Records
---
Amino acid sequence: MISARISQKIAFAVLLVFTIIVLVPVIAILGVLVKNGISSISWEFLSEMPRQGMRAGGIFPAIVGTLLLVVGTVLVALPVGVCAAIYLSEYAPKNRLSRIVRLSIVNLAGVPSIVHGLFGLGLFVLFFGFGTSLLAGWLTLAVLILPVIITAAEESLRAVPVELREASYALGATKWQTVRKVVLPSALPGIITGAILGIGRAAGETAPILFTVAAFYLPHLPGSIFDQVMALPYHLYVIATQVPNVPKELQYGTALVLMTLVFGVNLVAIVIRYFYLRTFRW
Amino acid sequence: MKEKPPQVGANASVCPITPRRLSVRLRLFKERLIEVIIFICGFLSIAIISLICLFLAKEAISLFATENLLEVITGTNWYPISEPPKFGLVPLLLGSLFVTVGAAIIVIPLGVGTAIFISEAAPNWLGEILKPVVEVLASVPSVVVGFVALLILGPTLKNIFDLPTGLTALTGSIALAFMAAPTVISISEDALHAVPKSYREASLALGATKWQTAYRVTVPAASSGILAAVMLGIGRVIGETMAVMMVTGNAALIPYSFLQPVRTMTATIAAEMGEVVRGTPHYYALFFIGFVLFVITFFINIIADIFLRKGRILK
């Protein structure tokens, strides 16, 4: 019979190994992308159109496309998501209906991304007749990131102490005035964090934009919200699997740019939340 | 949050209208309007999830104008563009099942183990570093995971097992395990974290070691949360599309081993929807697959939610 202390040592060592196995691939992925992709990163790569059937040139339209997609998506999802969070935290009674609302949000978060794509195709592209367009992509991605924004915003709204609301009511403010002038400003950092996490998610998704907005190859910028755009994740998929003989450096370079973008966005969110938790302890 | 706000201008209707009262009324009207918008947004999630279900079902049902439901579910051939086309789902269901089971076998011990390590064994400072790393892991886009697995993991497995191709169910399972890990870790970790401190202290005071406390007290107390974490991780795996499409080889054949190429339901939709003609049985068949996916993940989420709530009530 081994002593309790030794069995603890063994168990914790095994758990440490598990942790390392899980986390090393992140570092490995970043390492591989940086090592193989950094050589192709240049101003030309970032600012030029693709040439020779995407086997040369830059990825400028894909970068612009992804930025346009992300900005529009957040502009759609943020107001709706924050209003939904205000409802849940300030207005919703504790009853079955609120429970169903919460359950739908949980389920919405769990819907497979390709199903979001099918839904976007069915509702926005075909039923509303937007066609394969930026607008359809915005709405599809907005539905996708809505749960992320609602959850983060609600959490930070709930963290605002009741005393602040009571003080505001005591001064004669109405419910909406209290929400608008007292609760929302206090919860702002959390809401911003949620929005940024949503941006990161929207920037990296491929499946929902496959049939709603993404263009295989489009060497010019979109002229209106009813145009298709190229997007970084789809472009990476295309040059990695659909087009033969694309130089590896180009693929790694594209992956590195995408990863840097998503990574940078998430880093900003983590930093904001870190400082927020430090400074605001109610 | 239940307290009633004071009713400004509640008697406005019985008093003569002065400019000041008018402005109060206008403001009240504006607030009413804003609150209506807030209520609509609040219920929007129900509307969206119902719309998703409705749209998928509507298109999926059209498939059965030409095909037999039983034949689709039990058919072993997926030849959507042959003449006549065959829409047997079995190879795709098995493809998804193989990849999911493989990923679950890998991710459950690794993910739960990592969560126990972070919450029970690691010193505080290490936990503070590991948690953001897990978040970063969660943010890696699936197409990037697929890309790296395609170029590095695939060839490696091909050499190790001496296979004709490195694009197999196993490759997909490994890539997906990696993608589901953050879900499993962070939700398990939350569940462990929520176990009251007094449980641990009582166990330690009785002379138990930290490890004995972890596996006899903390983990059992957090079990429903951990179960929910595992379920949500599996839900993530079943729904994952891009990585799977890039690394599993996409052969719509019935698999007999993890070292064979497979094609999942998600990859089938992603790969074929782009070329399909709208209104054909093939188009409806893809929506039917989407509907099946939706139903599977819907139930996984509901069950996980029940476990999560059960965990909270116990506290």
---
Amino acid sequence: MAYETEQRDSFSTVNPIIAFVFFAFALIMSMLLMHPVLTGISFFAALVWLFLLRGRKAFGLLLKFVLPVMILTAILNPLFNHGGVTILFYLRYNPITLESIIYGAASALMLGTVITWFACFNAVFTADKIVYLTGRLAPSLSLIISMALRFVPLFTKQAGRIALARRGAGSDASSRNIFKKARSGLSTLSALITWALESSVTTADSMRARGYGLHPRRSFANYRFDSRDAAVGGAIAAGILLTGLAAAFRVFSVRFFPSFQLNDFSPLFIAACAVYALVLLIPTIMYLEEAVKWRLLRSKI
Amino acid sequence: MALVEIQNLSFTYPGTDRLALTGVDLTVREGSFVLIAGPSGCGKSTLLRRLKPAIAPYGRVGGAVFFEGEPIEALPERRQAAEIGFVMQDPEMQIMTDKVWHELAFGLENLGTDQRTMRVRVAEMANFFGIQSWYNKNVSELSGGQKQLLCLAAVMVMQPKLLLLDEPTSQLDPIAAGEFFDTLKRINTELGTTIIVTEHRTEALFPLVDEVVFMRGGGIFYSGTPRSCAKIFSTAPEFAAVLPTAMTCFASCSGDNETEAPLTVREGRSWLEKRVGACETALFPETSSGGKVPRAEKAEYKAKKPLLEMREVYFRYERSAPDILKGADLSVREGELFCIMGGNGAGKTTAIMAASGLYRPYRGKVLFEGKSIFSIPETKRLGETVAVLFQNPRLSFVKDSIREELNAVVKRFKLEPSRLDEVAELMELGPILDSNPYDISGGELQRAAIAKLLLPRPRVLFLDEATKGMDAFFKARFGALLRKLCAEGTAVVLVSHDIEFCAEYADRLAMFFDGGVIAEGTPRDVLAGNSFYTTAAGRIARGILPGAVTANEIIAALGGKPNE
Amino acid sequence: MTDLAAKPNIAPTLREDRIRAAEQLRREQDEADRKRARLRRTVTAVLLLVFVPSVIAVGMLGWQDRQFYIVSALIILFSVLPFLLVFEKRRPRARELTLIAVMVALGVAGRAAFYMLPQFKPVVAIVIIAGCSLGFEAGFVTGALTAFVSNMFFGQGPWTPYQMFALGLVGFLAGILFRSEIKTKLQLFLLILFGAAASVLVYGLIMDSAYVFMAGKALNIAAFTAAFASGLPLNLILAGATAFFLLVLAKPLLNKLARIKLKHGVFR
């Protein structure tokens, strides 16, 4: 999960602030502009990157998670939404309309896109980056997150030790009886909680001993902001600006109800779509660029 | 110049009238390395915490502490945080962030240091401590020794003038502890940082420090250079256990105060060589055979039936994992104290798991009274037949007092209520019976935990690193307790890194290496010939007094009076 | 707070005075803290219970044509952030942070430990106990961060802000409604009742609505009813789990937390 993986993905090494802006842009645009063409572009970009990031595992993720949600949404929407003028048939006296089916499909596509982007986010945004980002906004909360991330594996390990210690003392023989199992699980949890709470005094002491509570506090930036970050940031900013302008001047427009209507595929629209696609494909482009570079380097040796 | 000056300091914890510190006077020069030794509860931790106001316990204070001539409480918080560093016992909960780099930077973040300086200082300390290779790791991937080094480095980034350490190696194995001490020495000599450390592993620290302070009952009893400490032997023989072996032997044998007291094994050897050469009578009749046990003793031992046996046991935790036990053999007789020794990863703890029937080995046999231990149903096997105590016994305590905890066991095994008092008396729990398990010392807790296991009368008791973190005084008491247990017929199997303890108290030793037993026999049998893996006394005596493995044996051979 | 009592001193009588003065000062500060906390509680309650739902309602009526998920998500986000930032601005003490972190980690580890049973998790119970013992603010923070951190392990998604809001709200309500001590059977019963109700009516309701928001704009009563109906079985399991864990854990855990607060307090 997000906590462990560290891929050789070029975009993963971009400054987290830039990366966060990119994800925010991708997510908000995918949700706001429910234009089938644009959603399609976004879905495609997210999918390609997810495959680059996760390799074969991306398939499992899609089949197990994204696809069911999409299908469910596509089916459920027309059942509850009866707007639209083109009635196809009646289901238990409820009209099922073409528009609501199209709308359901568009919603499903949108949801799938959002979840796929989140899957990319989870792969790229390791705990380090999240702690770094939250550290800028809210240092104390970021500290809690960091501490919790440290405690979770520690507590899990301790729980195992406690269970073993209890068995060694004959306190609970491993049993197949579910009630006995639940009871011994609870005792373990209880011992764990006791230990964790008592030990937290040490943690608090250790924090205070190192000057926690002084003002002002400054979070350590383990990430630099280099020229590449500036270039990527600039490209993303330009993309946001252009797409925003296009949206403001209604270059993309879509209407689902009462009847489905798309805007004309004018050259301006196509250009705007190209810009949108280019921005969303930045991580993929960076990935491929790096791959090509390495191939060239190797061939020279 | 004096960095720290303590004047007539006394302290009482709230709710009691007992003075935890009774008029302590101490001056610590800048750049010195000071060791504070003394039994648990002598006030050394309290004294140390008084030097760090941010974590000093609340209570009634008398006297004064001056840091660079200023009253320590009057120091601005910022200065106090940066200039006085504090490292505690337990590395696990001292580390508060999930990443090594973040932990290193934490102190500087608090001080609000600017990014550039932070980067430089963090890099500097990572280099000094050799942390670069694990700089980006999660804290949960580190070993215990690495974690404690990280705690130290995380304090050192703030460039403290004074470094305080409260039993920093009590949770570490001897090798990691040795590395930690070497790092401390480097900090002291290369950075000039003043260090005050309380520690039970005095053998390794004595040669490194400039001054040793002995505490007893809340007051300072003696302070001076390490070499001068031989003097206290005549006035307070109970401190013999704290002195290095060479010095103990020296102090209890030689009346000659002209020669310098030896500190290290090397010095001990040259002293012993001279001594033995001087007095022709120094002989070791029973071991002159070169450490071989007389045949008669062996035969007698062989005749006794083993209670628990492990025969060619192979074990691994998962099918694809490497073997941890590779044909391990063990046999434990009734009422004996059997110690399993060996380095990290030799398979000692795993041997317990298999021998106690917690895990089933995939090849080989584990026999209890001649029958497979797995033929006993688990409810009978664990608890009543064998019982295992793992490290960190606190983990298994849930109730608010020791008594409740023991009562729960009495109820579970349907024992007679008088059994509780019986065991409590045996393990000397009287004064702590109604305390919260988290309010008593590690040694006391260890006793309580053993008492808990003893209630259902197990025949074999397995203890994993039971002497970890115990002070020398308590260890002697603990050893006597274990002997008492054995005398009552319980077999005790102790897994330990603590060679000195094993040599002193074990009936038999087994040395583990690479998943198997490479030597087994009486302590003298196993340890006397070894050059490294033996006691300090064994190293001192090797080739000079063959067969001696404890200080008392050397002393006896020289005609001195052995210590209790 | 600086420890005046620990100042070195030569004359014992003067020391007594200082100790008394320090205690007086501490009492006054505590009183001031309490007053401020009361004000914060009222403001927070009004915001969480009145403002946010009404904004969502207005949003639903007003922006019929827009994308609902994003509107609701933004509202939720903007309602979660201020509380977290208020907590941040208060510059919480080390002990508060560690206790919250421990509770968060227990919630997350608990979610992982019971992975084989869907929805049968101690998370809600632990957040409720944190709210009771540490107060409404810490309760909110514990809830919100438990959701956030556990999603760092299990995957963030469009549900994250809702989950943060829902769990935070549960912790907040527990902090407002209950004291840190359970003395009578009735109190325990009420706490368990609250736990079960909060699992279904607060956590369940918010998360089910989130799905409706996410899935599209078919925002009518039928869609909501269907979502709630389909979510009910799982919500009931969660309610059962919460009630169960509260029954077993609430009393000992609250006692332990009280002890630890004292221990932290003694060592400042």
---
Amino acid sequence: MELALMDNLWVVVSTVLVFFMLGGFILLEAGSTRMKNAGHIAGKTIFTAGIGSLVFWAVGYGFIYGEGNAIIGLSNFFYGDFSYSGEGLSPATDFMFQMMFALVSLTIAFGGFAERAKLSAYVIFAILFSALIYPVVAHWIWGGGWLGEDGSQDFAGSTVVHLTGAMAALAATIVLKPRIGKYNKDGSSNEIAGHNQVFTALGVLVLWVGWFGFNAGSTFGVADAFLGFVALNTQLAAGAGAVAAMFIAWAVTGKADVPTTLNGALAGLVAITASCGFVEPWAAVVIGLVGGLMVFYSMKLFDKAKIDDPIFALSVHGTVGVWGTLSNGLFAVPELSTDIGWGQAGLFYGGGFTQLGVQILSVVASGIYAFVVAFIILKVMDKVMGGIRVTEEEEIIGLDLSEHGGYGYPENIPHPAENNKAGA
Amino acid sequence: MKSYAEIRHFRDEYIQTVSTNHDKLNTFHDQLMKQSVQVAMEKVQSERGEPPAPFAFFLMGSAGRFEQSIWSDQDHGIVFVGDGDCQSYFLHLGEEIVSGLVQVGYELCEGNVMASNPVWCRSVDEWKLQLETWLEEDRWDSLRHFSTFFDSRVLVGESSLLSELKVESFNVLKEQPRLFHRLAENVGFIKKGIGLFGQLLPEQHGEHSGSIHLKQTVFFPFVNSLRLVALRERILEPSTLSRFKQLPDKYHQIKSYENDFQNLLDFRLRLRKDAQDYHEVHHIAKKALSKEERQELKLMMKKGYKLFSETKIMMENECSTWL
């Protein structure tokens, strides 16, 4: 009983840590974008967290963990269970922890909306993503769905949380198209620098701290004190990611670019998310290093492909989310996989290609589902709502003013309405 | 009397015929600018009468160093004999010259290093005082102003006025040799042109993405090194090539880079002769370069870095032996 209560306590602490990651996203996103959108970017994270919580309570949890079939769960809607059997996590503890993951995934998806989507688009998409996209993938892998049955290993959610969010972000960037001024007529791209690298760096640090809840909390308990090992892997991968990204940016472009370095730390974290409970520390370092290198090239590739991703959500959570999931198929050790009945060992540990195949399948299936459904939803929204992007004038004056009627930094931005009266 | 429009027309017609020869091109620029200044002087004379004192109009920057490519911006100043009362006349002249040169095709100087700016249009005495203050203040921007000033030559007027100022600054430097170290530090940032893998490092973003910024990555190390040595050896000549030529024999090591600089000038002219404006002149698209040209460019970059680091060490040694 006492151990079970400690488990509950640990998971509630982790719940708080994961929720605090939204604070990291607020700083990260606001810092990586322009001043005129700062209040909007920060504020929308709070209210979409509100929407996401309500939807998760109403249907999200039920679709994931309810009694159902291999595709979707269909019970436990409007969840509210104060019972506790005295063993394991109390239902509400488990529910709260799961909810936070849904909110993080939603926030990642909104990275693709940055600096150009209407506020109303956030509202509608927050509801639909939280009901129709995230819960389905989460059910497939964690909720007893067909991928989980296959032995897919995703310890804390490289695929479920990060890839799903990133695929929705990809659909959004494609439907919304690049920001004004991002690309020149000759096809070259401009750097639209974020307004505050200190915010961005602090955002990364807050996320990093929160990630201990994300990964180590996903042990769901304190038995064997396995959470310490998971935390160790998490720390090593994040450090390796930051180092690798700064190195590769410096080596290739001659500049030790700060945003790239910051994204490298996040890449290390995203990459180790799937594998933090399956691999040895040396492998965590390799997984983080590769994540850091990948994020640099991925950012360049999306930029070249004219996909405007203001806060690099596609690279950090998408590209690296895929790598993180696949890395299990290479590095998972038998003691933490085969021996405990959670999939197979990886390729480098004599597990052959079996687990790698399962990991590939879960990435492809989840990625396609999240992208296609998000794309359809956004296209329909675009038609029905008369466009999900703000007008050109609104984009120029900034979403703080156009969507909220105020400024994040009122002292520093002139009131355009006073200077540019139409017809004056 | 020619008009600015006529000079511009003349420029457009003939510049391509001299665009691949360094000497001819710079002589042509001198000719255009001289004519423009004459027009400006006559205009101001008709409005305000004869100049109130003898003066010299001098060029700085790439024009001062006789190192312009086909497009260039304006960097110039005026020094006059007499007191501050004359300044308003010469400032007015400076303004007229600036507007004339713009019409002839020379962009405004972003840093406002132009004879229309009181900082760069002064009497001999004020200039001396200003130079002394710049050196004594020993701030990053004041030393940068001094370096800009030192790459200068008279285009119209009394050459001796400018030489007098330069000699005056040699004297200040002689008394305070530590300034050589400070002047070397002042230009110590070199934009990286070659990466870890020996690859060229083009711009990553913006209209010039994929291009190499020639001036910052390749020219500056040569130009800055030779300026430092010229200050040390009291060489009045502003052009990098003539500074090379006038170096005493003991600088044989530095002299060995003269050919590289000559190659660099030729390289730029060869590749940039069709540039459409001032910004294009400085950017070379990596894609447009052949394999051999890339190798050539990298070699020149490396030579430049090496020259600058050798010069810097020399300056530091000189400082310490004098102290």
---
Amino acid sequence: MKKAKEKRSNAIWSVILGILSILYMYPIVMILFNSLKDERAISTNTAFQLPTAETFAGLANYVNAINAQGFLKSLGYSLFITVTSVAAILLFCAMCSWYITRVKTKFAQGLYFLFAFSMVVPFQMVMFTLSQTADMLDLNTPWNIWVIYLGFGAGLAVFMFAGFMKSIPLEVEEASMIDGCNPIQTFFMIVMPMLKPTMVSVGILEAMWVWNDYLLPTLVLDIKKYRTIPMLIQYFRGSYGRVEMGPMMACIMLTVIPIVIVYLAGQKHIIKGVAAGAVKG
Amino acid sequence: MASITFKNVVKTYDNGVTVVPDLNLEIKDKEFIVLVGPSGCGKSTTLRMIAGLEDVSSGELIIGDKVVNTVPPKDRDIAMVFQSYALYPHMTVRDNMAFALKLRKEPQEEIDKKVNEAAKILELEKYLDRKPKALSGGQRQRVALGRAMVRKPAVFLLDEPLSNLDAKLRTEMRSQIAALHKRLETTFVYVTHDQTEAMTMGDRIVVMKDGFVQQFDTPQNLYNYPCNMFVAGFIGSPQMNFLNVTVEKAAEGQVLVFGDSRISVNKPELEAYIGKEVVMGVRPEDIHANSAAHVGEPAEYTAFINHMEMMGSENYLYLDAYGQKMLARIPARYEFSEDTTVTLAIDTGKIHVFDKETTNIICH
């Protein structure tokens, strides 16, 4: 009796979640189809139609997207910014959380609240002063914009790292000190490896955000010289309001694919990492 | 190989709480010392001060012939086994044990040799390539021991290493650790709250309470000659009986009056207490069902059996004697039953008398 009831509720949930996932997937699937269609076939009337024999354009849009606007260069910028930003966030925030959780002073406590508070402040509130400051400090190139990303990413990262680190028994670090580690060695040889699940989940969350971010690089970077991929997509709008729909769709697909791969590879760790701080292992 | 000396050591935490008010202790080289006491008595803090994990607020801590107050843990030539094992979860058993040696940059062959040797002694050879989470509690504890062993430290510190194990394994590990001490011939400092562990393992035992050393002596002396009521009650299981008695002058010596029972003793120390109430301590095993097995004069008294516990070879009798509770350990061959009144005898050669106010010993 109970089993049958359970089965039925499972079925209902499957249907609900199935519909939800279709709703989420639909725009991406639509973009995928349209990216394979001839440009004339992408209009408000025909946007929802599947590609047919006549409208199917093969990979022409993709070739176009890659060649036309300096896609590879933008890809390089995006990749570089994402990698450096995420690496900086992981390294510095892990160290910072270690300090915050292990040093029990009012200063450390205050620091923690500051980090948590920074998550609450909306980006729009600081963006104009930020672009000024970035110019003043010469932080307006892809090579050093990671400093700014470090600042914005630190709130979430410190919050998650600190949550997990509280569950690591202090004895392990004490044992390493007795075994002969100095604090730097203890961090890199003992604490960092134990943080791995949280590292992966923080890394993926931050990577998705930095990779897809449009507003911050637009405000900070010199638009004429440096375009990240989200910025580039915009430039398929030509003059006189003409939009190169086909290559644009192709470009969006090319942007989405890497981050989806990263997410799929690490999704197991995301759940582990998020749960790790909350539940004592 | 090193001795450890505490000279007027004080430990006060940042929040102003003093856990160790004034500690003086001399631990000899190659000794197995057990620090024992109820939780919060400062025994773990004392051990952590030796390890260098807690600062010494004032006084001198000497390992070997060096004052180590400011020496970091890694330079003290000590090894520590923690209650929670504190193994490195991301390393295999082999790497856990080799970690300290690798940090010291010892040659790889040397490391392999030492790790394999330790693994053989601790019967861990099969598990060398496993991660700690794939091991049972007892195996993890052995890895922690192995990690400490391979370094051949001058001082071996153990912080309640057996309290996470089940009773059977605990007994087994107890003898393993004792054997390890014999083999390694180094100074062992062992912290526990379990008096059985302390009695069975220590060469000498430090009984602590509220940060003060109550008594520092061999297990036999602690058992036979406790210096106050705390030590008398803490060492020995089941606990010593404490009975309020009055001292009276007799023709020869004194008499301890306990209900209808009058126990004759002859101790000059008791002269000062004539007419006063004192506490008489009697261990449950020094109460006998007949008069044959006594060392001193048997002193008979009657008691009511409230409750009885069968332990197999012996019975625990929970008694009510002249309004005072007491416990007797009687061999199972004597048949008693609950809710009856019996006559038992206290071995007067084994009684302890304590001052009621100071709780210190008056005479044994």
